[in-house]
């Protein structure tokens, strides 16, 4: 059980999505009160997490990893919500993955025992802090992809107290991609630089296939990760225990095909998957790209995030303006998807034919077909595309059961 | 002096941008310590606000409004930072503008005496709360643009205790625009509905010209706002004191031309400008669109926001990867603009020819011309485009003097 929050923020800080004008209420008391989402304790817009769907998704992915013999380090940058990290670790996650030094620090403060920083770490300040934490039971791995970077790490740690080396994975990228060595030869050079640097230890190889265009490219790239790992092992640059990590939320079936099994004889190989968006899934990008659409008999994910927002104006035929904007909903991988209309009477109807055409900072433009009447005061329920840019817009998120009773409050740390 | 924060958050909650791994530090103590931005007290990326530039911009806009006889209700949704509201009110602002019920609640909790909610407010819960607050010295105005909306407000307030009416502005929109009646005839109907509704009082007319394509369209639209106000006054639908409000940060020179002067005889006319983005200005959208590029001898704005982020990888010729992503920098009205390179040695160079081509959640892709060498560990300073979607990505923002000593910490309430 992690610390759920770092400074016990009460809801009296007027976090958006809640309507608590009175004295301070702790989130625990708020959750215990059993508020209904439509009972006046929240304000619009609000991002809501469906508790049962999140539990289902955590269990589904834990089972997938167990079935394929993987370790799982779910990407915590998606949610940065300690209550969800707790649930993921309880379901067997080996570590939590993060993307930045600050997220690493937050995980340490929250009590996460092992963190995979899926990024380079070159800033001397967090590097020196990390070297000190390793003597106090904290485990962390991060990436290296250049000799210059390895030298910078070595220089930052040269005069530090402590005895344990920082543990790194050599990152293999691909041409046109993001970080990571472009060739296996470069990766070997980086690994040799690690071997020559005090206080730095090479634990394995990592990569990220999420930016690749199709399954053929992903398959080829994962093959090169395997080849690179074998090369490093053959050259004696890896210890007995080896970590190989890949896998966002779009291609983990191919990761299972390509990196599963015992392909590194003489070593104790741990393959670590890092999917993040699976935890809430979505109605857009991941609905289309999830491997569960391709693989059979491995389960499926449920959409766990909804934004509820109010129609404020219906100024022209076919147009409704909704109080939900770029501050509230992701818009980088597709606009929010209207799911349902809730009338002032409480009646709920489908939202077939409605679509969001544009977002301003605080408004959405909703196209309404002639056969549907949308009225000022109606509530719209939207699905989202891209969980990462949904969570980071909300500091507190009510968790609801399937009847929309608020059962918990998530705190996020962005 | 407003309350600077609602729950006195200390920096021990690992707010990104700060590096405070030790015991809790209050923001006041942190600011008093005199940290230098490059002295190890922050982590990368960090959004930084330049104190002198903000002061300059607040003074410049206050002088513009005073010179043209306007009241100023700066749009608080841009920053949602109480310390900046305090500075804007101290410089003579008549009110703070907000966009949502939650922002209204935050302003009330912070002690803002008068708020212009530049939006419809149809949710009965905040409406009833507001009706109660009006008896305790709080002033607020909000918009109406439909008869159905006015009826919903009347129904929400019908059985409420309290004596004062809620005060509304009838919103005139334009075809193809956002909220607001599309014709003056519709506006008159809405005003008549207000006159027929207990506990609601019409205080004037509002509009938003920010979405219009050019100065001719803005001029014509502002003329219709004037015409609509005269029509309502002629029909006896306005009291002696009248508020007319318009004005984002892109066209306030034309607002001054079109809405300045004594054009509503027999009434005490207050024209209220609502610009928000002026407070930090930017290196993108507003740098291009600010009226100060058109008007002469009225001053100019300075760019006050910078993001500092670290180069983590230089994996291919011409490409550097920087630790700054969609979570950190606005990307809806243009990508961040490289301004300077700070080497590990502390030397600072220009960033001519560099450009950001893409953002992921936590990474930026930087195109680097052949004649420039960018190295892992270098810091990049970026300007931004669109202050609203910069502020909302940061809970705490260091304010720096021109020598990059941290002199204050802004807290935001999104």
TrEMBL record, chains A, B:
Listed EC numbers: 5.1.1.1
One MF term in the entry's GO annotations: alanine racemase activity
Which terms are listed as keywords in the entry?
A: Isomerase
Q: Does the keyword ATP-binding apply?
A: no
| Domain (D-serine dehydratase-like) ranges | 304-401
Which protein, by its recorded name, is this?
Alanine racemase
């Amino acid at each position: 059980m992690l610390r759920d929050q770092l400074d016990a923020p009460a809801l009296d800080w007027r976090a958006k999505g809640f309507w608590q004008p009175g004295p301070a209420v702790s989130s625990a008391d708020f959750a215990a009160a059993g508020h209904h989402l439509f009972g006046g304790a929240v304000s619009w817009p609000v991002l809501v997490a469906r508790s049962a769907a999140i539990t289902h998704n955590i269990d589904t992915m834990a089972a997938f990893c167990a079935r394929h013999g993987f370790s799982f380090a779910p990407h915590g940058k998606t949610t940065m919500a300690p209550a969800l990290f707790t649930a993921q670790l309880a379901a067997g996650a080996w570590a939590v993955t993060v993307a930045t030094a600050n997220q690493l620090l937050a995980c340490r403060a929250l009590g996460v025992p092992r963190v995979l920083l899926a990024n380079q770490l070159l800033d001397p300040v967090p590097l020196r802090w990390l070297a000190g934490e390793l003597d106090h039971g904290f485990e962390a791995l991060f990436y290296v992809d250049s000799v210059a970077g390895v030298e910078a790490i070595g220089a930052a740690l040269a005069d530090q107290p402590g005895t344990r080396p920082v543990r790194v994975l050599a990152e293999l990228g691909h041409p046109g991609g993001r970080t990571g060595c472009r060739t296996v030869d470069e990766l070997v050079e980086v690994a040799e630089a690690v071997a020559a640097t005090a206080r730095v230890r090479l634990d394995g190889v990592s990569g990220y296939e999420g930016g690749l265009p199709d399954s053929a490219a992903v398959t080829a790239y994962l093959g090169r990760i395997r080849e690179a790992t074998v090369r490093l092992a053959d050259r004696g640059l890896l210890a007995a225990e080896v970590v190989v990590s890949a896998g966002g939320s779009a291609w983990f079936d191919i990761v299972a095909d390509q990196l599963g099994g015992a392909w590194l004889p003489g070593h104790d190989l741990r393959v670590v998957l890092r999917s993040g968006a699976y935890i809430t899934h979505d109605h857009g990008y991941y609905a289309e790209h999830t491997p569960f659409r391709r693989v059979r008999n491995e389960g499926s994910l449920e959409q766990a995030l909804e934004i509820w927002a109010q129609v404020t104006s219906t100024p022209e035929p076919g147009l409704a303006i909704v109080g939900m904007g770029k501050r509230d909903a992701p818009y980088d991988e597709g606009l929010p998807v209207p799911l349902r209309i809730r009338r002032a009477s409480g009646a709920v109807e489908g939202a077939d034919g409605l679509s969001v055409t544009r977002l301003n900072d605080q408004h959405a433009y909703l196209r309404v077909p002639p056969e549907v009447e949308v009225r000022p005061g109606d509530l719209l329920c939207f699905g989202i595309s891209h969980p990462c840019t949904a969570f980071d817009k909300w500091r507190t998120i009510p968790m609801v059961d399937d009847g929309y009773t608020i059962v918990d409050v998530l705190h996020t740390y962005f």
